[in-house]
Specification:
Strands 1, 2, 3, 4, 5, 6, 7, 8 and 9 form a 9-stranded mixed β-sheet that branches. The chain starts with a strand and ends with a helix. The protein has helices spanning 15-23, 43-49, 66-75, 95-102, 157-163, 173-184, 206-209, 216-234; strands at 2-8, 31-36, 55-58, 81-85, 90-91, 108-116, 122-124, 153-156, 187-198. The chain is of the alpha/beta class and 238 residues long. The chain has a single domain (2-234), classed as Spore Coat Polysaccharide Biosynthesis Protein SpsA, Chain A (Alpha-Beta Complex). It is globular, with a radius of gyration of 17 Å.
Length: 238
């Protein structure tokens, strides 16, 4: 069973296209778990209007933070294969088939993607653009921009079980799950481009630009937090 985990917040502009691209690749026994963070636009009406039993819509909680909104979606996933998703991208049509093949040999994978503008016009044919400064080595990724973009990630159930619950002080679910997958399991950065990743005014982030406004001391503190959490998680059974 495949569980796609998505978080939403005021995503009415793009969510229909993304959900449509996902559902077209899922089987009748798979699920799309969507955790909404108190949307005030038409996001929920659009999702409910699709009337697809594979959609499990989680509402009623307010997180104010995408990391812990995603934790809620992941904690409710029932599948053996987990795929994370943003609300505003579009999947390449054979994404699920490619992921299933890789997860036979690996536990955690991250694909490449097309970076587009809000209208899906391709800006870059890869996310590994020089200005992003993405670290490939898992140790370097503790201190530099990581390759672990959540919307490009997929993993087996045992990775999720190791990652949950999230430490309360982490800043990014992408990083946390990426560190869990790369340090404790067999992982791969695969070359296939499996999503069209929209860059638009409402989703500007360090994951799409490789840049951060945090000070050096803030970054150092955040990294120390991740390292501490990884050490603690390594001592936990399961």
């Amino acid at each position: 069973m495949i569980s796609v985990c998505m978080i939403t917040y005021n995503g009415e502009k793009y969510v229909l296209a993304q959900v449509t691209s996902i559902l077209s690749q899922l089987g009748k026994d798979d699920e799309l778990v969507i955790s909404d963070d108190g949307s005030s636009d038409r996001t929920l009406q659009i999702l409910e209007g699709m009337k697809d039993d594979r959609i499990r819509l989680l509402t009623g909680k307010r997180f104010g933070n995408p990391t812990f909104n995603m934790e809620n979606a992941l904690a409710n996933a029932r599948g053996d294969v987990i795929i994370m998703s943003d609300q505003d991208d579009v999947w390449v049509e054979n994404k699920v088939d490619i992921i299933k093949k890789y997860l036979i040999d690996f536990d955690y994978i991250v694909s490449d993607c097309y970076i587009t503008d809000g209208n899906l016009n391709v800006i870059y044919n890869t996310r590994y653009i020089p200005e992003a400064g993405i670290a490939i080595n898992k140790y370097a990724a503790l201190f530099k921009p990581t390759p672990y973009q959540g919307s490009c990630a997929a993993f087996n159930r045992k990775v999720l079980d190791k990652a949950l619950p999230f430490p309360p002080y982490i800043q990014s679910h992408d990083r946390w799950i990426g560190y869990i997958g790369s340090f404790f399991f067999k992982y791969a950065l695969i070359p296939e481009k499996l999503i069209f990743y929209r860059r638009h005014g409402n989703n500007a982030s360090t994951s799409s630009t490789g840049k951060s406004t945090n000070s050096f001391l803030q970054k150092l503190g955040y990294r120390f937090g991740y390292i501490t959490a990884l050490i603690k998680r390594s001592l936990r059974n399961g």
